[in-house]
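Bumping my old thread because nobody answered last time. Still need a sequence for this structure:
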């Protein structure tokens, strides 16, 4: 009991005194310094209330850990790779999916620019089939780069030519310099091509029920509720929707902390919708914040993701404010109970 109380006190000190979770890493800062928390005086009274029109709920018996302090207790990462599999569930460790690109990443040399987080995802494969014998697509973050025609045999080349030269979560915002294509590693393979991800933001939801049934239950329910709030804004993008802008929602494999389900990672381009600085409390009656759709900067101006906000303990009634404040404006509604960590490349800050 004494050990548990001591651990709780130490965790509280980290949050209040801005001590990093890793004492050897002095770049970590407090939750409120990393991402602005919502404030009714700035953001309006809606940020103080959960959605009242939400009729979706988790199954009876859906219980999670509610007492731990979350912030700062995640393992830092430098890059994040999502592999398209056209599946929503996988074997317990995705690197053990036989014949898959995930397995090939597990066997390949590690990237030279820091820890790479690897996630299987439900992004559609080019053939819309979960056949690992076919080339697939990967999404490289924070670069927001889509690499096509990736096979297990080409993974070492992808690491060497793309991931090693990609921006990391600590890289300053600067235009990407990744090659648009590279020769295939084998004579009978297709060339690997790279293009910008068309979306302005991504919401990644853990759906791996082989690790925890709650993830398999929560992800589809949250996706349905998120769609309800994104569609009126013109921001919802289905799995095959390549229109510029908008928000892609993908199911991914285990990211850790399933006892805090539902976990969500929100990657945003810098000022993704042009409304980061809007103060909703100053809007007149009937005025709404609408996302701005500026002309595309093109590949030459693409800097990738500016932020990633990693949240947990999300419930369907959180989705409205998740869209309004986190996705649209990069703010956190419940930092004390839901923020696990993340980074802001524009500020040069991170939580680990």
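Sorry it took so long. Here it is:
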């Amino acid at each position: 009991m004494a050990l548990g109380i001591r651990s709780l006190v130490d965790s509280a000190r980290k949050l209040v005194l801005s001590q990093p979770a890793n004492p050897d890493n002095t770049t970590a800062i407090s939750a409120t310094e990393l991402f602005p928390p919502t404030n009714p005086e700035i953001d309006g009274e809606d940020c103080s209330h959960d959605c009242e029109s939400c009729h979706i709920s988790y199954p009876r018996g859906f219980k999670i850990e509610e007492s731990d302090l979350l912030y700062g207790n995640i393992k830092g990462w430098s890059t994040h790779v999502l592999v398209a599999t056209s599946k929503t569930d996988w074997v317990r460790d995705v690197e053990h999916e036989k014949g898959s690109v995930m397995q090939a990443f597990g066997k390949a040399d590690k990237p030279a620019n820091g820890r790479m987080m690897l996630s299987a995802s439900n992004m559609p494969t080019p053939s819309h089939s979960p056949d690992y014998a076919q080339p697939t697509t990967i999404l490289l973050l924070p670069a927001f780069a889509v690499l096509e025609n990736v096979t297990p045999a080409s993974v070492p080349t992808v690491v060497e030519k793309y991931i090693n030269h990609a921006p990391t979560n600590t890289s300053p915002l600067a235009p990407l310099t990744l090659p648009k294509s590279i020769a295939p590693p084998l004579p009978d393979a297709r060339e690997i091509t790279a293009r910008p991800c068309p979306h302005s933001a991504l919401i990644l939801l853990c759906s791996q029920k082989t690790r925890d049934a709650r993830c398999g239950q929560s992800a589809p329910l949250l996706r349905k509720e998120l769609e309800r709030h994104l569609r009126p804004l013109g921001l919802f993008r289905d799995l095959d929707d390549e229109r510029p802008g908008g928000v892609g929602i993908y199911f991914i494999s285990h990211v850790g902390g399933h006892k805090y389900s539902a976990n969500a990672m929100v990657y945003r381009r810098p000022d993704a919708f042009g409304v980061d600085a809007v103060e909703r409390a100053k809007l007149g009656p009937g005025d709404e914040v609408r996302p701005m759709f500026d002309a595309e900067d093109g590949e030459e101006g693409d800097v990738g993701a500016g932020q990633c906000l990693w949240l947990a303990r999300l419930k369907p009634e959180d989705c409205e404010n998740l869209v309004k404040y986190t996705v649209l404006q990069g703010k956190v509604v419940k930092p004390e109970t839901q923020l696990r960590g993340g980074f802001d490349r524009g500020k040069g800050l991170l939580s680990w």
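Confidence is low (pLDDT under 50) at residues 1-26. Let me know if any region looks off to you.
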